[in-house]
Design a protein that fits this description.
- The protein has a domain of 56 residues: 5' to 3' exonuclease, C-terminal subdomain (DNA polymerase, domain 1, Orthogonal Bundle), CATH 1.10.150.20.
- It contains 6 helices and no strands.
- The longest helix is centred in the N-terminal third of the chain and has 13 residues.
- The protein starts with 9 loop residues before the first helix and ends in a 6-residue tail after the last helix.
Amino acid sequence: MARTRIPISKAEERARRLREQLELSTAEIGLTVRTTNCLEEKGIFTVRDLLKSTPKDLLSISNFGEKTLEEVYQALEKIGYYRPHRQQVEVAC
């Protein structure tokens, strides 16, 4: 029997997965309710919105400090988005 499905390359699959992740809400990536509320007050609802924000933008949000910024970075790293200087820290096994 002939296959009717066209195989998707690993690169295409990864790109599709990353596009889907951009649409995840800030709550879906594991941020606390307090952090999510702070972000939403500033109009930041999705991972895409979050990635467009600079650290300076985030730190300008009321009740959003260095610890909260670190929480955001850790949540983003869990889904594969790394700060440029942190990406090299990953250890290859």
